[in-house]
Amino acid sequence: MLERTQLYDWHKAHGDVVDFAGWEMPVRFSDIREEHMAVRESVGIFDTSHMRRFFISGPQAVVFLQTLTTYNVSKLGVNEGHYSTCLNERGGIMDDLMLYRVGEYEFIWITNAGNGPKIWAHLSSHAKRYDVKVEDKSKQISMIAVQGPRALDLLSKMAGQDVAELPRFSCHRLKMAGVDAYLCRTGYTGEAGGEVLVMDTPLTDAGKKKAIWFWEELLKQGAEFGVKPCGLGARDSTRLEAGLVLYGHELDEDTSPIEAKIPYAVKFKVEPHYIGFDVVKSHKDGAVRKTRIGLVMVDKGIPREHYPVLLGGNEIGMVTSGGMSPILNNGIALAYVRPDSVAVGDLVEVDIKGRLRRAKVTEWPFYDTSLFGEGRTARYGN
Predict the structure, then answer these.
(1) What CATH topology corresponds to 8-49+141-240?
(2) What is the DSSP letter of 305?
(3) Fold category of 290-365 in CATH
(4) What's the CA gap between 351 and 319, in Å, rounded?
(5) Where are the domains of the chain?
């Protein structure tokens, strides 16, 4: 049986609901392109309650988490967060995650929906050797992402304070529209904004009602900023345009963070060493088996997952994510190729249903960062 978030009833009444990683989730509420552009030009809100929220606490929480994740946990201050990965013994990625320190010995681990059971079992198994407590609070807390150049205006209005003053990657507990919440200054679109953990919203009639009220309050208070509810379609297109990785596409248990070109998720001056440390260190020193690249189509065509990438008539890799960029009005893709086979600016070919179409190797994000994305002035119009 498919799982549902606290906001399912609203989604069913207003959007197109599909099966996603075992969940009934909205793929869109209007036109995916319109939702995408709302995130790039104003503000969009996404239900991310299907993601898992694990709370880790106890006097050995830091050493426990350092054993399992690749960033430097001890460097996190209270109310700070970072992006990290959890590896297997081969250095492959079990999942990518956000980790927030919300107390001296208390952390929140946000993990992907599809990997939730695997990571829960992994955490529970290793926790037996440490003085820590691991709790799955996913079904007690709903989660909503608010993203776009007007997102901070909307979040500030809801919080009654200027949340632009809260640093990126921070996580603070505060009241939003009178509701107890954690505001995490993070996202998955390349834009400014935050992710709101709405506390005390269990999967009961009362909990669902509270979560839906908060969602509708975002829409009500965000009307002046052009807010739109957004589905999975716009979530995927915005993350692809930003060049962000997706588990099951760019990330899996046979791919290391170095191969995935997310070195910012990895630190090597850590104690104790995390699981997979030696393999990832060897990859950093040049022993990678593949590398991630960005592609922009030169010829007409939309690259899709599993399409071969060729150079000089020889296959050198495979597309992992692809689609049409609403900003560029052109096909874009992420792909893995053999190490040192191509460089930025090179032309390759993508086999699109038996037809070879030229594409240029490029850096990401795919858009002009002076016009779109987090790098813009935080406040719209300033």
Answers:
(1) Gyrase A; domain 2 (3.30.1360)
(2) T
(3) Elongation Factor Tu (Ef-tu); domain 3 (2.40.30)
(4) 10
(5) 8-49+141-240, 290-365
Which pair of structure tokens corresponds to residue 196? Answer: 């709101």
Distance CA 87, CA 71 (A): 11
| Cα 26 to Cα 18: distance, rounded to the nearest angstrom | 6
Note every long-range contact of 114-119, with CB atoms under 8 Å and residues 24 or more positions apart, other chains counting: 114/21, 114/22, 114/247, 114/248, 115/52, 115/247, 116/51, 116/52, 118/94, 119/52, 119/54, 119/86, 119/94, 119/95
Distances (CA, A) of 98 to 47, 222, 340, 372: 17, 26, 31, 23
Helix, strand, or coil here: 351? strand
Q: Report the C-alpha gap between 333 and 243 in whole angstroms.
A: 9
Got the DSSP string for 5-67?
-TTHHHHHHHSEEEEETTEEEEEESS-HHHHHHHHHHSEEEEE-TTSEEEEEESTTHHHHHHH
Q: Model pTM?
A: 0.96
**What's the pLDDT tens digit per position in 161-204?**
999 999 999 999 999 999 999 999 999 999 999 999 999 999 99
User: What does the pLDDT look like over 289-302, one tens digit per residue?
Assistant: 999 999 999 999 99
